[in-house]
Amino acid sequence: MHKIGSIPGSAAVTALVAALLLAPTAQAGAGPNCATGYHCGWDIGFDTGKISFFNEDADFRDNRFNTGVIVDNNIKTVSNSTSSDYVSVWFTGPDFTGNWFCVNPGSWVGSLPDDGTPGNGVGLANEASSMTLFAGGPFNFCY
Ligand SMILES: [Ca+2]
Ligand SMILES: [Ca+2]
Asked: Which residues, if any, are the signal sequence (predicted)?
């Protein structure tokens, strides 16, 4: 590795920017307990009530976990196993409205903020009502 300081002036900055732009950023990831290509959510932990999404879903009120329980306002754990660079973005309202959080490729979260009341729009656990995908991850502001 050469030191950036050894390259005179703006050429160093230009070289650094070029290197960053060329560096591969797409990170397909295997999130825990979620099949490749899918974005998964659970009712409790990784053990109870699982649902897997391959694409976005605008309204969880007609989705059920494998236990039969309605998914809307009931997700506490999520895992992202995208086969590409898609970040999963989970919204507290249907049609991608309200507050949101995002999960990077290969990442997961099981400790979302929770005020203890599902579906009241406060906190993020037991609030998700829709989910979409955003390419170009990972992002440093996502789980
Ligand atoms: Ca909600
Ligand atoms: Ca709540």
From this structure: 1-28
Cβ-count burial of 14 within 10 angstroms (0-12 exposed, 13-18 middle, 19+ buried)? exposed
Domain ranges of the chain: 26-134
Please determine, looking at this structure, whether the domain spanning 26-134 carries the CATH number 2.60.20.10.
yes
Ligand 1 centroid distance, CA of 104 (Å): 21
- 75-86 pLDDT, tens digit each: 999 999 999 999
Task: List C-alpha distances in Å: 34 to 77, 78, 105.
Answer: 11, 9, 12
Ligand 1 mean position, distance from CA 72 (Å): 6
Considering every ligand atom, which ligand is closest to the CA of 100?
1
- Ligand at minimal distance from the CA of 95 is 1
| Residue type at position 82 | T
The pLDDT of 79-102, averaged and rounded, is 98
Taking the centre of ligand 1 as the mean of its atom positions, its distance from the CA of residue 119, in whole angstroms, is 5
Q: What is the pLDDT of residue 5?
A: 47
* pTM greater than 0.90 (yes/no): no
Give the pLDDT mean for 105-132: 97
